[in-house]
Design goal:
heterodimer, A: alpha+beta, 3-stranded antiparallel beta sheet, 9 strands, globular, B: about 180 residues, alpha+beta, 5 helices
Chain lengths: ~180, ~180
């Protein structure tokens, strides 16, 4: 058995971050079918959205980190996805987030990203985290800045992606 | 914080092979296969980023569905020989048993040996009662292997793409 693939559960004030499940794919693919996914290389049809969904889940077994489903801690309702993303062409692990349409504007991505970053530094022992963001995605850029990340134009970028790099404050700044 | 072993990936051993969880270091050989002509009949050639998505998707399937892709490695040397497993993309009407062998390992019955182990595991451990293989017409090598495994064309079965061939494997009751 492959113990490296265990997916932890993280709790915040309002949220549970848990392993992605097949039943999350409906609302997940709803996001990818919408214009809201345009800054994340969307929209995607169901087959492509599945590969996006499953490959992010597969990172856990391959790299020991990956994507969580973000659900309402009280109701269990699916709210979005947050976690660490690093397909083969990403120079560094990327903290990313996505919130479904009905859950926007209430700080959920912020709360989830803080929990992810805390886990990365305190539990997983990572020291360098980026967010690669399409420069037109002003909502995500605002959140990166709120998280204390700063644009780093010297950082290597994922090959072939139209994005800029935001570097998160390291564990020493957050301790 | 609690941890949940949602993606426990078993290891299967055969006389010559070990089927184990895919690892990052397998990706080079995997990507080389999908960059080559040999991938044309395996749902198409892919660049490195596209190959990664395939590679990670069948790993993620373990967490999502409880089954997925195994890396096939040489039991004595550990060399990467290919991939076999139970594949179940969104557009698949049912779980599929599939295989892929890198060019250097072809012609030695490796896919056959791996597929037998996967099928046995799928029936005995996973408890599946039937399995299909979706094959692109013209992939005569895979068709021969499906036939060697006792699978027969299932003309009535739903398929991911109208152009796919569906081979239905003998069920657990036949193989018992």
């Amino acid at each position: 058995m492959n113990a490296a693939a265990d997916i932890p559960v993280l709790e915040t004030a309002r949220l549970t971050l848990r392993a992605p499940r097949v039943e999350d794919f409906g609302p997940y693919s709803g996001f990818w079918a919408s214009d809201r996914s345009v800054w994340e290389d969307g929209p995607l049809d169901l087959d492509s959205a599945w590969k996006e969904f499953a490959s992010a889940a597969g990172l856990w077994a391959l790299r020991g980190y990956g994507a969580w489903s973000v659900v309402d801690r009280a109701t269990g309702a699916y709210l979005g996805e947050a976690g660490l993303f690093q397909p083969v062409h990403y120079p560094e692990p990327d903290i990313g987030w996505m919130v479904v349409a009905g859950a926007e504007g209430s700080g959920i991505a912020h709360e989830a990203a803080l929990a992810v970053r805390d886990w990365c530094y305190r539990v997983r022992g990572l020291t360098l985290l980026m967010s690669y963001i399409d420069p037109r995605n002003t909502r995500s850029i605002r959140l990166a800045e709120r998280l204390g990340a700063a644009r780093d134009d010297t950082a290597p970028l994922p090959e072939g992606e139209f994005c800029v790099a935001y570097r998160h404050p390291g564990p020493e700044f957050l301790a | 914080m609690s941890a949940r072993a949602v993606t426990a990936i078993p290891t299967l051993n055969t006389p010559r092979l070990m089927l184990r969880a895919p690892r990052l270091e397998d990706f080079g050989a995997y990507a080389d296969f999908f960059a080559s002509e040999r991938a044309v009949l395996e749902r198409g050639r892919r660049d490195r980023v596209g190959a990664w998505k395939e590679f990670a998707t069948v790993v993620g399937q373990w967490a999502l569905r409880g089954y997925g892709g195994f890396a096939i490695v040489d039991r004595s040397s550990g060399a990467y020989l290919g991939e076999a497993g139970i594949f179940h993309d969104h557009g698949y009407p049912e779980p599929e048993i599939g295989w892929m062998v890198v060019p250097a390992a072809e012609g030695k019955g490796i896919a056959h040996e791996a597929a037998l182990a996967v099928r046995r595991w799928a029936y005995d451990t996973l408890g599946l009662s039937t399995l299909v293989s979706y094959i692109t017409p013209g992939n005569s090598r895979s068709i021969r292997l499906a036939e060697r495994l006792g699978a027969v064309p299932d003309l009535a079965a739903a398929r991911p793409d109208p152009g796919d061939l569906v081979y239905r494997h003998p069920g657990p009751e036949v193989l018992a």
